[in-house]
Write a sequence for this structure.
């Protein structure tokens, strides 16, 4: 665990060359260090001062110093930040000077971990910091923003209020039955039913949440030379796959991530599925089938000018799963007999690609749910749901009320793990393990 007596330092911007870099220092010695590092600058909190950064009488750089009072900083601790030139060597020298003055190098995620342990944020907001940094699409950014604003924590707290209220009432009737009488079991079951509904609302958004974090995995399949690679390139906006009129040009799977309608989609252009003519192509076909099995969706591409053929039908039946989307490509060259459910596109002209965007949007739609839950949250929500339902079952029988109290107390503890209130050290360490230096 963190030793709060230590003052820590780290750059909070990237390590590459840049016009400006930012260095953060947090801990009880922060202001003492700041006054020695910026001897000629002002030192009132919550203001920025320009001056020379000095170490051992040498001027290392010039920049801005901003001091933050305890309770008004990122970590809730006394801290300061230095804005300096973004030379990696200048940053290295300044950080080394701060270490010489009594700080130590921060571990990955330690600033955010201190913010959590000092009560400024809960564990879901801490996770949101990492997700904000990693966000590569608009959907990922919006999800991280909702988490950072405390949306998931608020939902979990609301469920805890329902469960905690019934736990308190049940415990009171057990301890003071003569004074307040028996528990109104019908009322308790109804209120606990609302708690279960709240849990189900969060769980219903788990799949969409997973897809937003990891990306919707799509296998683009079809016979050779139907335009799979052209479609991949059109969706990516770049020539990632080789496009020729020679069947079997794509001899291996090609995987790229695209932002489609603001959502992350992991597109895999598979080798055309046919009888392979050589060992290399045969390996590509085998990998294509493995990709299909591991994908969230299969988009089946066929040629609009030729229409849906018996070869397309045979290939679709051989996939082992029905295609999630049928795409009639090359519509600019004509249209023959197409399947009614087909999306008509021209990968070369871009016509019809908006229909694919609508399909992706529909895949991520959670309705009344919330796409906020990750695997850690899901495990605890499922466990808490079981505990609340067990308590409801107990209250529908003649079993003693204190048995229901055991399950309700367990549910409170389990829900508290999500926000970090009752999370053990190993969960907290797991959350911060993959953070970058400076956060």
């Amino acid at each position: 665990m963190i030793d709060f007596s230590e003052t820590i330092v780290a750059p909070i911007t990237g390590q590459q060359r840049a016009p400006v870099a930012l260095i953060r220092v947090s801990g009880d010695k922060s202001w003492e260090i700041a006054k020695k590092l910026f001897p000629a600058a002002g030192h009132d909190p919550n203001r920025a001062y320009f001056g020379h950064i000095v170490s051992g009488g040498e001027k290392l750089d010039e920049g801005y110093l901003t001091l933050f009072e305890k309770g008004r900083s990122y970590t809730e601790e006394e801290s300061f930040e230095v804005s300096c030139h973004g030379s990696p060597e200048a940053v290295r020298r300044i950080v080394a000077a701060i270490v010489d003055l009594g700080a130590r190098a921060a571990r990955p995620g330690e600033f955010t971990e201190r913010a959590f342990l000092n009560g400024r944020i809960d564990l879901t907001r801490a996770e949101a910091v990492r997700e904000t940094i990693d966000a590569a699409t608009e959907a990922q950014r919006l999800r991280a923003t909702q988490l950072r604003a405390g949306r998931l924590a608020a939902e979990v707290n609301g469920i805890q209020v329902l469960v905690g209220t019934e736990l308190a009432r049940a415990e009171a009737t057990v301890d003071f039955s003569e004074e307040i009488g028996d528990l109104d079991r019908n009322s308790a079951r109804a209120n606990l039913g609302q708690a279960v509904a709240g849990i189900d609302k969060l769980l219903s958004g788990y799949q969409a949440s997973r897809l937003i974090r990891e990306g919707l995995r799509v296998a683009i399949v079809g016979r050779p030379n139907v335009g799979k690679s052209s479609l991949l390139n059109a969706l990516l906006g770049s020539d990632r796959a080789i496009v020729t009129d020679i069947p079997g040009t794509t001899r291996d799977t090609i995987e790229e991530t695209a932002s489609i309608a603001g959502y992350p989609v992991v597109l895999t252009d598979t080798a055309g599925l046919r009888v392979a003519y050589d060992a290399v192509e045969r390996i590509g076909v085998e990998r294509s089938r493995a990709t299909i099995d591991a994908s969230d969706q299969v988009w089946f591409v066929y040629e609009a000018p030729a229409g849906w053929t018996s070869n397309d039908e045979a290939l679709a039946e051989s996939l082992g799963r029905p295609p999630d989307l049928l795409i009639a490509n090359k519509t600019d060259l004509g249209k023959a007999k197409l399947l009614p459910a087909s999306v008509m596109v021209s990968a070369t002209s871009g016509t019809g690609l908006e229909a694919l965007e609508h399909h992706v949007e529909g895949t991520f739609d959670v309705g009344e749910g919330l796409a906020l839950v990750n695997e850690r949250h899901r495990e605890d929500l499922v466990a808490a749901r079981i505990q609340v339902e067990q308590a409801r079952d107990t209250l529908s029988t003649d079993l003693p009320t204190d048995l229901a109290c055991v399950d309700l107390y367990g549910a409170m503890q389990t829900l508290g793990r999500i926000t970090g209130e009752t999370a053990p050290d190993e969960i907290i360490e797991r959350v911060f393990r993959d953070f970058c230096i400076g956060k």
The CA atoms of residues 261 and 361 lie 7 Å apart. The longest strand covers residues 58-68. The chain has three domains: 8-120, 128-209+371-434, 219-364. Confidence is low (pLDDT under 50) at residues 240-251.
